[in-house]
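Second attempt. The first submission of Probable RNA 2'-phosphotransferase had a stray character pasted in from the spreadsheet, which I only caught after the job came back as garbage. Lesson logged: always re-copy from the clean sequence file. Corrected sequence (183 aa) follows.
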Amino acid sequence: MEIDLQQLSRTMAYALRHQPANFGLTLDDEGWVSVDALVSALRQHRTGWKHLQVSDIEHVIALPGKKRYELRTGRIRAYYGHSLQQRMQRETAVPPARLFHGTTPAAYERICQSGLLPMGRQYVHLSEDRETALQVARRRTSQPVILVVAALEAYQDGVQFYLGNESVWLADAIPPIYLTRQL
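This time the job returned cleanly.
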């Protein structure tokens, strides 16, 4: 039986970003877990996956679109999006001059007061391009609001940034002074 790679990817995200304990997994401080442990946990999670292989995980990682996982030296982790209590440790990185964040009109009103906050996640998620931010916002609203983040200026003023993957940046919080609504 062929494995539905989209379903496998969603389950991997749940296991690596939100509920590793439900799968009997323990992530290290940087979010890594043995790929063999993940495969074993996923085999037990769904009877149709009892023949799951590391190569199936590699196929998920190779899927087109956003890169959500990193596989290195027999270990795997989700790049970003964690909602765990345990904060994933990341190395700070110098961001580009500007980044983008897509949101809803209602959230924009709150953001004007408090800035961008991680909310239920560990970090604020930012995009390198406007189009990705627009796609993110359209998941929640038909009237997206796009914010331009003066990322390099914020970084120079002490805001910490982290590279999530090749197109997603993470930050602890972005004060409103660094945000401009793009019309």
